Amino acid sequence: MIVNGLQKLSLLDYPGYTAATMFFSGCNFRCPYCHNSDLVLHPNRTEEITDEEIFEFLNKRKGLLDGICVTGGEPLLRSDLEPFLKEIKNMGFKVKLDTNGSLPKRLSELIESGILDYVAMDVKNSKEKYALTAGIPELIKDNVVEKINESINLLMEDRVDYEFRTTVTKELHNIEDMNGIGRWIKGSKRYFIQNFIDSGRTIKEGYTGQTKDWLDEAKEAVQQHVQEVDLRG
To answer: Which of 26, 57, 76, 171 sits at 20 to 30 Å (Cα–Cα) from 70?
Structure first.
């Protein structure tokens, strides 16, 4: 198992806990505003950390870290992810997964295994603008939206703690889109609106964050549908 990046301490990635964050290369989306472009497009430019090195690090952090967060890219593309996370779970760490929600079968398997403690799933945009926002061909949009919908329904069964989240840009998101997202995840318990911040390493250039007034309006729009809505970043 190769990990393509390690942040040894984060107070933000796993809400309420101290965590280490592990990054995995490879993704089936090409979101143009993605700030981890090397993980998606140029994995050969990223670190290569072996599982032996990861477990050595975690052994030294027992009692100091509460959990680990696995992110990407899209971690669920890794066929050997489950045994890797199971070993980490058996060491006593909580496990949080970040996912784009496009692989509901893999997500379901991990939930059924009892390995996951928390899932943060991206809802990129309203259904109508999913292809544009995720950087996928329009002709496969309906199939991808169906998969996203499966993952939303799976998480809303509440067998694992979860949140939905959307990173918003001026160029891709308007208030009607936010209403559409709210209707899509209606009844869910937790949703975060994350303002885009340009890392300088995006897949495409030209994207900007929304204004504070817009974010407040978006929050109000989604609050009609979701139990808890907050702004992040």
So the answer is: 171
| Domains of the chain, start order | 2-232 (3.20.20.70)
5 close to 47: Cβ distance less than 8 angstroms = yes
Secondary structure in 3-state letters for 88-155: HHHCCCEEEEEECCCCHHHHHHHHHHCCCCEEEEECCCCHHHHHHHHCCCHHHHHHHHHHHHHHHHHH
Residue 36: which H helix or E strand, with range? none
Q: Which residue has 């990173």 as its token pair? A: 167
Indicate the pLDDT class of residue 1, thresholds 50, 70 and 90.
confident
Distance CA 98, CA 76 (A): 9
Reported in sequence order, the residue ranges of the chain that DSSP labels E, i.e. its strands, are: 2-3, 6-10, 19-23, 49-50, 67-71, 94-99, 118-122, 161-168, 191-195, 229-232
Q: Which residues contact 90 (CB under 8 A, 6 or more apart)?
A: none
Give the span between the Cα atoms of 161 and 176, in whole angstroms: 28
Q: N- to C-terminal Cα distance for the chain?
A: 32
8 Å CB contact between 69 and 58: no
Integer Cα distance of 195 and 198 in angstroms:
10
